[in-house]
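User: Need the bound-state model for 2-oxoglutaric acid:
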Amino acid sequence: MPYLQTIFNELIDSYIDNKVGIAKDFLSAPLASNLKANLMSLLATNQLLSAGTGNDTKVVHDQLYRSDSIYWLDRKHNDPHENDFFDLMDQFVEHLNRTCYTGITGYEFHYALYQSGSFYKKHFDQFRNNSSRQYSMIMYLNTNWTSGDGGELRIHNTDHEQDIAPTNGKSVFFKSSELEHEVLLTNKPRMSVTGWLKVG
Ligand SMILES: O=C(O)CCC(=O)C(=O)O
Ligand SMILES: [Fe+2]
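Assistant: Bound-state model below.
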């Protein structure tokens, strides 16, 4: 089986078994490093925006709730690495729809930077007034991450909590309406690409 399909199945199979899909090497090392370099240059050129909570009609900038900053990826940027990322996501969505009949028709992704001391309190990803977000997907861009660095993604399952370290290239995948989660306070800059697979 081609390598990518093996990784896609690792993510999907662990999602089916545990409600939280994890694939350790979803992003290749070069792609992760190129996306991280993009994020660093967005920071250097002041293009990152403090992230809001809520959807477009009611965005609240509450730093007590989440303190990351973000930038949306777009094919219109004509950035080769963003386009490599979108090519990968197109293949993943095609694979997911073909093997699981998910009917995903779109997606949206942003870079996220959690500076040291940042966090994102417990929340669901699906907006109350809009259910187009079906699956949440996060890809991490952090080399040399160790346990004292904090910044784990904490998933609140009904009967247990699960902490996931944001290590380089890893992807996490779960149903947006189903699992409450949070980002624990990070002691080091923590970088990722986060997004949603959508219907309608
Ligand atoms: O970065 C993470 O691990 C999760 C981010 C998150 O929950 C979100 O952006 O909605
Ligand atoms: Fe979230």
